[in-house]
């Protein structure tokens, strides 16, 4: 029986039977999305989509979200235990100055269970934060800024100023997973300057020991009794 007669008997349109999907194969895109999601385990689909487009992929956010959901990569809600955000890769040992910088930004609201030496408060009670950058090879303090508010965009501007003063750009920057340091402003900054940003595991400051040495050993506040 011919296809024409079979379709007529069944009452089916021939165009539906002969239709061939023209949708491109997304296997490679799915594989890369899974790789990025495993490297950046606390990134949602928006930031993962931005990372994918940065690598040269052409895909709108709606299609990316569909693939993201089909692969079941949605980020789970945070529980009591902290989860890692950065890449699962060991850090390299710097062999010269300006190869790796360590960065610390004092918390806006420090936890009472942990002493924060890079944030404090004025006598009036208003808090201020300290932004510190150290060269891991020379142990030199590259940048030390105190202010009541330091955003991700401000961090990028201060790093640009440090690069201009030293006439050298670091290959890698190491920091914790603070909100300002995982913002889109920092992602764009690292991409535009071609600087690799390495995040340590949450709750493990010893992985960023060079800046912790400055923060907890050398940077001390002298408080005047009221």
Protein model, in words:
This protein is an alpha/beta fold and 226 residues long. The protein has two domains: 21-78; 100-218, Nucleotidyltransferase, domain 5 (2-Layer Sandwich). Helices cover 35% and strands 15% of the residues. Strands 1, 2, 3, 4, 5 and 6 form a six-stranded mixed beta sheet that branches. The longest helix is centred in the C-terminal third of the chain and has 15 residues, at 152-166. The chain is elongated. The chain starts with a helix and ends in an 8-residue tail after the last helix. Mean pLDDT is 80; it is low at 110-117 and 221-226.
In short:
The chain has helices at 3-10, 14-18, 27-39, 45-54, 61-70, 152-166, 184-192, 209-218; strands at 100-105, 119-121, 127-135, 141-147, 172-175, 196-199. With 226 residues, it is an alpha/beta fold. The chain folds into two domains: 21-78; 100-218, Nucleotidyltransferase, domain 5.
What is this structure's SSE topology?
Layout: H1 3-10, H2 14-18, H3 27-39, H4 45-54, H5 61-70, E1 100-105, E2 119-121, E3 127-135, E4 141-147, H6 152-166, E5 172-175, H7 184-192, E6 196-199, H8 209-218
Parallel strand pairs: 1-5, 5-6
Antiparallel strand pairs: 1-3, 2-3, 3-4
State the main characteristics.
226 residues; alpha/beta; Nucleotidyltransferase, domain 5; 2 domains; 6-stranded mixed β-sheet; 8 helices; elongated; disordered C terminus
What is the CATH architecture descriptor of the largest domain?
Answer: 2-Layer Sandwich
CATH topology of the largest domain: Nucleotidyltransferase, domain 5
- Characterize the quaternary organization of these chains: single chain
Q: Helical region count?
A: 8
The CATH top-level class label of the largest domain: Alpha Beta
Percent range of helical residues:
25-40%
Strand content: 5-15%
Count structural domains.
2
Q: What is the fourth-level CATH superfamily of the largest domain?
A: Ribonuclease H-like superfamily/Ribonuclease H
Total strands: 6
Radius of gyration of CA atoms, rounded to a whole number = 25 Å
Structural class: alpha/beta
The coarse silhouette is elongated
């Amino acid at each position: 029986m011919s296809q024409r007669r079979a379709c007529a008997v069944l009452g089916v349109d021939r165009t539906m039977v002969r239709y061939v999907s023209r949708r491109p194969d997304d296997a490679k895109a799915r594989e890369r999305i899974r790789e990025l999601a495993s490297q950046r385990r606390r990134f949602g689909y928006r930031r993962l989509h931005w990372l994918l487009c940065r690598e040269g992929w052409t895909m709108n956010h709606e299609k990316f979200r569909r693939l993201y959901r089909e692969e079941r990569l949605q980020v789970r809600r945070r529980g009591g235990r902290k989860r890692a955000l950065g890449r699962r890769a060991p850090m390299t040992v710097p062999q010269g100055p300006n190869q790796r910088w360590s960065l610390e930004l004092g918390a806006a609201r420090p936890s009472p269970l942990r002493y924060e030496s890079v944030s404090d408060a004025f006598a009036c009670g208003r808090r201020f934060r300290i932004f510190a950058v150290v060269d891991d090879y020379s142990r030199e303090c590259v940048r030390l800024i105190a202010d009541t508010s330091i955003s991700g965009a401000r961090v990028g501007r201060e790093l640009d100023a440090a690069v201009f003063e030293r006439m050298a750009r670091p290959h890698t920057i190491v920091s914790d997973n603070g909100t300002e340091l995982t913002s889109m402003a920092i992602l764009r900054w690292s991409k535009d300057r071609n600087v690799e940003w390495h995040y340590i595991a949450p709750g493990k400051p010893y992985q960023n020991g060079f800046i912790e040495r400055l923060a907890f050993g050398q940077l001390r506040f002298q408080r005047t009794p009221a």
